[in-house]
Amino acid sequence: NTSVMGMVVLASVRAMAHGGLSIFLVLYMSEDLGFSSINVGFHVALLSLFGIPASPVMGWASDKFGRRVVIAIALSAIAILIFALLPFGSGWSFTVILALLGVFLYSVNPVMLAAAIEGANRGMEGSVTALIFTGQALFGALSPVMAGFLREGYGMDGVFYFSGGIVAVIAVASVFMPMRRVEEPA
Length: 186
What we know:
The chain is an all-alpha fold. Helix content is 83%, strand content 0%. Helix 3 (51-65) runs antiparallel to helix 4 and helix 3 (51-65) crosses helix 5. The chain is globular and about 55 Å long. The chain starts with a helix and ends in a 10-residue tail after the last helix.
């Protein structure tokens, strides 16, 4: 099923970017920016806190305007915000970018899951959910190793380019990805 597998790929690659970025953001803040542990914790919390109220809003928007539009916009925003960390990776701009990144980073997941479930035949919802979470876990587990090699060789810029680049690719792919809604029999 191309609709389901397309969403599995999008969700998995998004998790890949998230996995590598999240771990190395902590090191970046601690080692490169010299943040205290409390300050690191505050900034990591921003990634989650701003996603909490954004999730129902994204769900509503995807119901009203369509899954594809919301997914493409959210993935594009994630890519742009990660790339924005290159010139604005410190100070207040860093804090604002992390807060904005939190709006999209977590809240696009339920929309991708909804799109995948809609593309599956009735009775396959559990299998589709399991596929999405398995793909995210697998890709999310691989990305810290890749991001670690990039940080060793190119510093944090390598991690930002890696994470932003793969999200930019799937943002474009989401525009063309098959998304269909399986109609219920009458």
